[in-house]
Amino acid sequence: MQKGKFYEDKAADYLKLKGYVILKRNFHSPYGEIDIIAKDKNYTCFIEVKARSSNYLVSGKEAIDFRKIEKIRKTALFYASDNLDRFFRFDVLEIIQNKDFREYHLLKGAFDVSEKF
């Protein structure tokens, strides 16, 4: 199993435990890909999953640069054109893999693109 798929599976399991309803995984558009699209109460959430080892110097959120945010934003707009929900949010789920355990850090509203959305 690929490392990315393994952590996306773990992320989906974690989000379900937190009450999210998974709508799509690995959603592709002509502009890019979103790891997970899920419902959290009234919000449709576009979730980027970032896995790191405990000694990694850059956090998951810091690893998402402007170009990645633009790809996510355009892909979210593409998704929204067929799914007319009112409230959208961009989350990052960082998974930190330690030797003996795994930590999850869910950053709700990790970045804001509302001025362009």
Secondary structure elements and pairings:
Blueprint: H1 3-17, E1 21-28, E2 33-40, E3 43-53, H2 66-80, E4 87-97, E5 102-107
Parallel strand pairs: 3-4
Antiparallel strand pairs: 1-2, 2-3, 4-5
Structure description:
With about 120 residues, this protein is of the alpha+beta class. It has one domain (about 5-105): Trna Endonuclease, Chain: A, domain 1. Helices cover about 25% and strands about 40% of the residues. The protein contains 2 helices and 5 strands. It has a 5-stranded mixed sheet, with helices on both faces. A hairpin with a 2-residue loop joins strand 2 (about 35-40) and strand 3. The radius of gyration is 14 Å and the shape is globular. The model has no long low-confidence stretch (mean pLDDT about 85).
Estimate percent helicity.
25-40%
Counted by DSSP, the helix tally is 2
Which term fits the overall shape? Answer: globular
The CATH architecture category equals 3-Layer(aba) Sandwich
As residue ranges, the low-confidence spans are none
Largest sheet: 5 strands, mixed
* Radius of gyration from the alpha-carbon trace, in angstroms: 14 Å
Helix- and strand-based class? Answer: alpha+beta
> How many independent structural domains?
1
Tell me the β content: 35-45%
CATH topology: Trna Endonuclease, Chain: A, domain 1
Distance between the termini: 35 Å
